[in-house]
Amino acid sequence: MEDEATRKMRFLFALRSQGITNPRVLDAMERIDRGLFLRGIFATRAHEDVPLPIACGQTISQPSVVGLMTQALDLQPRDKVLEVGTGSGYQAAILSLLCRRVYTIDRHRTLVREAEAVFRDLGLVNITAQTGDGSHGLPDQAPFDKIIVTAAAEDPPGPLLAQLKTGGIMVVPVGQSDAVQSLIKVRRLDSGYDYEELRPVRFVPLVEGLAAD
Ligand code: SAH
């Protein structure tokens, strides 16, 4: 059996080999234990660089994809960030160590509740989680310095583009849900938006409306 230190070293090595080189991002990912966001036998696989099932038929993203998206956001300590797709809460927890305030929203009430409990246990007091349809963004808290969408949309949702500050960055997987999608980095300019394709990814779809659970 591998000990904890060896597992952690392997985990960080895998992240680096996938192009996550930002020391602040690596440090945050070393500090947040992914196992706390998983249940049952899946918790024992927390250090593997694979997506894993969570409640409500959703998935926790692959750590290297979490790292890449976080790195692409170029987070600054004063940033106010919106995450669409709380899921397990793992991505939000990492964001919370790197910016001032995180708003995270999911259409599944159960996931939001479970994630909030982990945030509380970890003392991550700068995260606000809420149930809702994140494709409309969060008009009350807009504009945001950075927006991260962790479910795939066919196009970057218009309301989210509108809620991004000038100079702000949004990362969003774009494409059909049953095909390979592209991770897109959008930067809001003085006039218009600049789009950069980062890499192929595979996310669960962004679905409209609240879920029953
Ligand atoms: N970031 C998560 C992984 C998210 S999986 C983590 O770190 O674990 C994608 C999540 O997006 C799912 O939980 C799903 O319920 C949510 N989702 C899909 N469509 C949504 C929408 N319109 N609004 C809010 N959340 C949505």
Describe the structure.
- It is an enzyme of class 2 (transferase).
- Catalyzes the methyl esterification of L-isoaspartyl residues in peptides and proteins that result from spontaneous decomposition of normal L-aspartyl and L-asparaginyl residues. It plays a role in the repair and/or degradation of damaged proteins.
- The structure is a single chain.
- Helix content is 28%, strand content 25%.
- With 213 residues, the chain is of the alpha/beta class.
- The protein has a single domain, classed as Vaccinia Virus protein VP39 (Rossmann fold), CATH 3.40.50.150.
- It is globular.
- The structure holds S-adenosyl-L-homocysteine.
- Residues 58-61, 84-85, 87-88, 90-91, 105-108, 111, 133-135, 150-151, 204, 206-208 line the site of S-adenosyl-L-homocysteine (SAH).
What general form does the structure show? globular
Q: Any guess at the CATH architecture?
A: 3-Layer(aba) Sandwich
What Rg is obtained from the alpha carbons, in whole angstroms? Answer: 16 Å
Report the β-strand fraction as a percent range.
Answer: 25-35%
Distance between the termini: 38 Å
* Count of DSSP-assigned helices: 6
Number of domains: 1
Number of strands: 9
Largest sheet: 7 strands, mixed
**Order of strands across the widest beta sheet?**
5-4-3-6-7-8-9
Helical amount among residues, as a percent range?
25-40%
Please state the average pLDDT score.
96
